[in-house]
């Protein structure tokens, strides 16, 4: 670990989180990180697992929706294995054009390039504000800040968009609509892999009116990446999260006691299972812990599309997956209640699931 001296605090505690990491990183005189970005001082539990490279499960989406019955059955089995063993997989042959994926990344990059005043219009006051821009995760409760700027936009069932950049609205609407259709088919396959009817998970979560959130992340170049963290180990709150990124690595997923470096195939989409799927599957499919690390060379941009149940829908394990040998693991809770709790507290592993976990589960 480097023994570099940390920078003096540029902000008072009251001012922390008001400026962007991008502004600070591009100031031209930053050679070390401010002390409140030193993740090694965090009270969050550290996971000192080795970092490795492994083959990540790959799902051929075209075979799932257009393959022969035998091909589709194999993909369904592959989905089940990926969800139970990894909670993470790559999707190839998904039919979403490269120009659309690149366009989505470009409009998000253009948003982060806006002035601090323009981005400041979207500093949210509540976790359910439909457009929120900021830094870290939740600066009101974070004890150590993360090397990350973000914008979160609700895009379904009601669609929102920042005013600038001008093409953000059209590009993000088209991209998120295509992702939502892909997720619907993946959820059907996952439902079948659990031995349920194809539409069970879709109906149980009221996915047609489910909440979809576009989360764009910017991880600027960091002068001391060994001390900072882009986003700490955590699981996501919804059903499935679909992620794409520029050509800069940084995503790692936990698997079998190791951090696995994610090196996606060209034009693939990355998908991870999230907390509501773990609840619905009664724990058979685990939401995956993942994190984003930073580097001292160049900025990374990612777009995560979080796909969850309808906000007012109460989510509980599928009765078909509970019996004497597999008692119910989670109690019922609306997705809105769960989302508000997770987004209002410090990001800390999978501790949000403890809110609905039944005693002795």
Key structural traits:
361 residues, alpha+beta, Jelly Rolls, 5-stranded mixed sheet, disordered N terminus, metal ion binding, iron
Overall morphology: globular
In terms of DSSP E residues, the strand content is 15-25%
| CATH topology (level 3) name | Jelly Rolls
Round the mean pLDDT to the nearest integer and report it: 90
The biggest sheet amounts to:
8 strands, mixed
Q: Calculate the terminal CA-CA distance, rounded to whole Å.
A: 39 Å
Helix count?
9
Classification by helices and strands: alpha+beta
Record field, number of beta strands = 15
The unreliable regions are: 1-17
Annotated CATH architecture: Sandwich
The named CATH superfamily: B-lactam Antibiotic, Isopenicillin N Synthase, Chain
C-alpha Rg (nearest Å): 20 Å
Order of helices and strands: HEEHHEHHEEHHEEEEEEHEEEEH
* CATH C-level label: Mainly Beta
**Percent helix among the residues?**
25-40%
Strand order of the largest sheet: 2-3-11-8-13-6-5-4
Domain count: 1
């Amino acid at each position: 670990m480097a023994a570099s001296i940390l920078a003096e605090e540029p902000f008072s505690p009251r001012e922390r989180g008001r400026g962007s990491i991008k502004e600070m990183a591009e100031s031209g005189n930053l050679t070390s990180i401010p002390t409140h970005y030193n993740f090694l001082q965090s009270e969050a539990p550290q996971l000192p697992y080795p970092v490795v490279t492994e083959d990540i499960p790959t799902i051929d989406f075209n075979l799932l929706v257009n393959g022969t019955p035998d091909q589709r059955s194999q993909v369904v089995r592959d989905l089940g294995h990926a969800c139970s063993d990894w909670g993470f997989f790559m999707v190839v042959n998904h039919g979403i054009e490269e120009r659309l994926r690149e366009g989505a990344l470009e409009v998000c990059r253009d948003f982060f390039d806006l002035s601090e005043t323009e981005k400041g219009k979207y500093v949210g006051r509540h976790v359910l504000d439909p457009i929120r821009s900021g830094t870290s995760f939740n600066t009101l409760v974070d004890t150590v800040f993360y090397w990350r700027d973000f914008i979160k936009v609700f895009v379904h069932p009601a669609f929102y968009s920042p005013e600038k950049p001008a093409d953000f609205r059209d590009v993000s609407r088209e991209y998120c609509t295509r992702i939502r259709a892909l997720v619907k088919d993946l959820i059907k396959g996952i439902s079948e892999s659990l031995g349920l009817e194809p539409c069970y998970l879709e109906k149980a979560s009221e996915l047609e009116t489910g909440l979809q959130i576009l989360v764009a992340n910017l991880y600027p170049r960091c002068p001391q990446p060994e001390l900072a963290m882009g986003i700490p180990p955590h699981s996501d709150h919804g059903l499935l999260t679909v992620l794409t990124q520029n050509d800069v690595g940084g995503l790692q997923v936990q698997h079998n006691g190791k951090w696995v470096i994610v090196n996606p195939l060209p034009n693939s989409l990355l998908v991870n299972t999230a907390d509501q799927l773990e609840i619905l599957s009664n724990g058979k499919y685990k939401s995956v812990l993942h994190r984003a690390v930073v580097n001292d060379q160049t900025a990374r941009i990612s777009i995560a599309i979080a796909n969850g149940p309808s906000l007012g829908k109460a989510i509980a394990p599928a009765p078909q997956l509970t019996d004497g040998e597999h008692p119910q693991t989670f109690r019922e809770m609306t997705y809105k209640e769960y989302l508000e709790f997770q987004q209002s507290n410090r990001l800390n592993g999978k501790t949000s699931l403890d809110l609905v976990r039944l005693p002795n589960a």
